[in-house]
């Protein structure tokens, strides 16, 4: 396996043409019967197969050049990551989760006796992860667990199985491929174990070992930034993935914790449903992250969508004001995403982000963030995670415009 992966990546680095819509039928370049298939051709076929397996979660790969697909090119190499505004997507892998997807996987989820539920409760995005990348999203919240047979690591949101075929490893190859096409960009992947999948799902040693293997494969060693417990400059992070570890390896020997690069956001110190978490991610240096993850507003029972949106907006804006005015050299990570499914009527992620029609004339959190962000020109806000990030259309471009690159000393050369 390792040898095949290395051949694939070596060939990959030499790929010249910006072609490959890998979901499309493959047109073989040689006439039938010609057996001189070069190794680079086989590598392309192998990568095409992996990306096709990944497509239900990553999206159908296509190389798109746009100003937003390379927005980091304009920023100087010595820009500190903690000084940047980085847009992210919460539960990024749920973008195609619909009733049709749910039903297409009934034969799988049925094996674990998972009962039916409203797919809208678990869907947080509408556009594929490759579209997110091209639109400028750089931080991805990814939720993994074993499939129903405890065999492969796949993506879930609660009991919502996103795909049976797209494994964590397959999807990583989508990110690797995209970085080859966009070497000026720095990506940040947050991995978190998803609980409440199958009735027996558990973050056991098997899960932890398989995640470790995916994150330390020969390909991962090449594409993940190999530093631990510190966040540096954009120049160091370009063309790489910075791993955001929202998981522990407590079922494995200590080696598995120390051998994994990235930033550790200990789940025990990530206070549940908190508007204001202070999390030390490196106890030797005291490096600290300030986090808002108030995902379920603690409104009185049976509150309206309007009230739930207002409470969430309040927490998000308070944290963003804190990011703009305090701790200039620390990491800020704020979630604008939320839900209140225990409310009656239930408030879905879409209602929180986008409102509920005439019941919420001012829209949802996303619409209401626009006037707030217009007052934040020139401010560092840090990482901001969105649901349904493309709505309203001006939201993401506005966020990306708040902090223009310093002077004219762009990275260039990419
Ligand atoms: C393989 O076949 C093609 C088309 O006939 C030819 O152009 C190419 O040189 C051959 N490659 C090798 C390595 O023999
Ligand atoms: C999205 O879901 C629909 C319905 O299940 C499915 O037909 C389609 O192939 C999915 N898209 C991708 C890229 O997998
Ligand atoms: C702007 O320049 C300052 C001083 O060199 C640097 O600390 C900061 O990281 C830069 N910020 C951006 C967003 O480029
Ligand atoms: C699913 O339900 C059936 C019938 O109640 C039961 O026999 C089976 O053991 C259950 N399977 C699991 C994985 O819980
Ligand atoms: C999966 O693993 C869990 C323990 O981690 C076990 O309880 C469960 O029975 C296993 N399920 C299957 C289908 O193997
Ligand atoms: C803490 O940061 C220092 C300096 O960057 C680094 O050498 C060390 O490995 C980090 N410790 C942990 C536990 O990440
Ligand atoms: C949680 O935070 C406390 C206090 O900062 C620290 O002592 C402890 O090591 C942290 N736990 C983990 C698992 O990082
Ligand atoms: C919430 O709504 C349910 C269903 O309409 C009702 O039974 C319950 O009494 C309500 N709770 C409160 C605190 O109003
Ligand atoms: C609004 O945010 C402030 C500051 O975080 C908090 O003290 C207050 O309780 C919040 N109000 C509501 C209704 O959420
Ligand atoms: C978050 O907590 C810190 C420390 O307790 C406090 O100084 C700060 O005002 C709080 N921020 C918000 C937005 O509540
Ligand atoms: C959203 O609107 C629909 C249709 O008007 C309504 O049935 C539902 O209760 C609303 N949900 C919330 C949380 O306001």
Automatic annotation (TrEMBL):
Transmembrane segments: none
Keywords of the record: Signal
PROSITE patterns listed in its UniProt record: PIPLC_X_DOMAIN
Entry-linked InterPro entries: PI-PLC_domain (IPR051057), PLC-like_Pdiesterase_TIM-brl (IPR017946)
GO biological process terms held by the UniProt record: lipid metabolic process
Single GO MF descriptor: phosphoric diester hydrolase activity
Signal peptide residue numbers: 1-21
Protein name as catalogued: Phosphatidylinositol-specific phospholipase C X domain-containing protein
């Amino acid at each position: 396996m390792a040898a095949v992966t290395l051949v694939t990546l070596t060939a990959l680095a030499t790929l010249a043409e910006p072609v490959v819509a890998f979901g499309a039928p493959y047109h073989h370049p040689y006439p039938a019967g010609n057996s001189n298939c070069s190794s680079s051709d086989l590598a392309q076929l192998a990568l095409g197969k992996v990306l096709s397996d990944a497509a239900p979660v990553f999206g159908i790969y296509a190389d798109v050049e746009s100003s937003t697909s390379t927005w980091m090119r304009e920023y100087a190499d010595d820009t500190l990551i903690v000084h940047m505004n980085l847009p992210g997507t919460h539960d990024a892998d749920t973008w195609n989760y619909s009733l049709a997807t749910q039903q297409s996987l009934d034969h799988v989820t049925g094996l674990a006796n998972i009962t039916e539920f409203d797919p809208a409760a678990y869907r947080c995005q509408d556009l594929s992860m490759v579209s997110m990348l091209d639109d400028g999203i750089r931080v991805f919240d990814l939720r993994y667990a074993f499939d129903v047979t405890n065999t492969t690591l796949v993506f879930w949101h609660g009991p919502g199985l996103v795909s049976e075929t797209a494994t964590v490893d397959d999807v990583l190859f989508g990110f690797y491929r995209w970085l080859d096409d966009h070497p000026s960009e720095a990506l940040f992947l947050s991995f978190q174990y998803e609980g409440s999948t199958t009735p027996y799902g558990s973050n056991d040693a098997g899960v932890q070992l398989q995640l470790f293997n995916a994150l330390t494969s020969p390909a991962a060693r090449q594409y993940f930034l190999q530093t631990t417990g510190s966040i540096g400059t954009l120049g160091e992070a370009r063309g790489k993935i910075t791993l955001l570890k929202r998981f522990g390896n407590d079922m494995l020997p200590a080696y598995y914790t120390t051998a994994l690069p990235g930033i550790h956001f200990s789940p025990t110190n990530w206070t549940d449903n908190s508007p204001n978490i202070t999390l030390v991610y490196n106890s030797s240096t005291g490096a600290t992250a300030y986090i808002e993850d108030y995902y379920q507003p603690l409104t009185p029972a049976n509150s309206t969508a309007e009230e739930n949106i207002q409470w969430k907006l309040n927490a998000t804006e308070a944290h963003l004001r804190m990011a703009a005015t305090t701790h200039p050299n620390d990491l800020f990570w704020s979630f604008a995403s939320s839900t209140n499914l225990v409310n009656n009527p239930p408030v879905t992620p879409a209602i929180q982000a986008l409102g509920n029609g005439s019941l919420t004339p001012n829209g949802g959190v996303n619409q209401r963030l626009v006037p707030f962000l217009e007052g934040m020109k020139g401010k560092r806000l840090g990482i901001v995670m969105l649901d349904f990030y493309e709505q309203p259309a001006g939201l993401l471009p506005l966020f990306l415009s708040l902090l223009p690159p310093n002077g004219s000393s762009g990275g260039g050369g990419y």
